[in-house]
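Forum > Structural Biology > Help requests

Title: Can anyone predict the 3D structure of RING-type domain-containing protein?

Hi all, first post here. I have the sequence for RING-type domain-containing protein but no way to get a structure on my laptop. I'd be grateful if someone could post the structure tokens.
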Amino acid sequence: MIFLLCISAVLASFNTQYVTDQLEIQQTNLNSSKSYLLSLIITQLPQNNYCLPLLQVIINNETHNDSLAYSIKANIQKVYFNSTDNITIKVSCNMLEYFQNQKNINKTMHFNLTMTEAKQHISQPCQFPHYGQNCSLSIQQIQKEFSVTILILNNTWFYAYTILDNDDYEIYVQNGESLFGISIISFNKENATRLPSFLQNLIVLDSYNNDENQISLPKTENSQESIYIIGLYNFNSTQIQEITITITASDKNEDFPIWATILLISIVIFGLLLFLIILCHYKRQYKKLTQIKPALDRKVLKKYMPPQKVDTKMSTDTCSVCLVQFELKEKYCKTPCNHYFHEQCLLDWTTKQANCPVCRQGLLENEINELMEVKNIRNRQVEELTIKEAIKQKDDPPSQTYRDLPFLQLSSSPFRSQCKIELDCSPQAEHSPQIIQFDGSPQNLTNRNLCFQSDGIVESQN
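Reply #1:
Sure, ran it for you. Structure tokens for RING-type domain-containing protein below:
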């Protein structure tokens, strides 16, 4: 129901009674040199009692209202204004947020609207714990750890305060089957009294919930003591209702002292470090146990038998390990005993054995050095023998027949060797050639001497 009244030529002062839920009035015959007081006096609130009556005065698109009276749902709202000859007056009833989803709410109210010439009177704020007109009322104190039962008039606020130390507390409220609203604000007692309202942290306590309602009061960090003002509103429009409040310390565990926190953190850090040390040690041991150490050190293999690319000269050769011919662009390794293998084949072989797959020559670093030394000695002996033979041939030219040669000497070698000699004993080559074969090995260090006897070649151990 919307009631719109436009007044363009009436007296500046009036007193009119209305029954509606919305009202808008245009006032145009004011004296801009005078001050006025517009009052809204509510004689009967809406039946459902879930909305807040609001008086607004609009002057040049600026809205003025009695915010304090509106926030606590006071029966009288006053607005002072001046320096204007034209105003718009609006009266409405705004639903509380908790009840906005309800339907078929009757917001009709009975009220008087009066306007008189008056100068604005600024009253002094009330000092805590006093409040109300002329600061004649006092806020009641509630002690913690005690239960207090309070009777609250219908459509009325009840105010109380409590002083708590720097800790967490809980408020337990038993409202039975009554519908209450509760608003709690923190407060500094050095300031003027400030009251809870519908617009500050309002909590509606349902009438169908017979259990205790629990509200937390967190501790403040700026002071040792905290003052909380508790506002209770009885939504019942006809009866006085009873409510019980109990303020107790929170059951939450107290904060750990600093030394206990530091000790706990130190234990956790020490445990993590110990776990990491054990884990690293375990990984190291596991790696040693699971890793297969090759028989031949890879550094020796890389130093004395570096991998090389296969060329065309080796295309017909065969690896003695895998028995597969070498292919171009493959990599091979050459052992100090002059045997050729695929790189991977030699790696796999030397993982278990440290010798040559063909002649069993040892491939350890000291064995390779011994082999190289024997080779050097042999090369020097061959060079010396070659020089002596050259000098002898120069001084005494050799005979054209083999009978002048005393013997053929074969020196010992670290390699397993095989020798085959074919000799045609007749000048006319009428007879078959005589053949002498023998095997030599690194273990047999005896020199082999071949001597000519009776037009033949025999082996002598002299």
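The helical segments are 67-71, 258-290, 298-304, 343-352, 365-395. The domain at 130-249 is CATH 2.60.120.680 (Jelly Rolls).
Shout if anything looks off.
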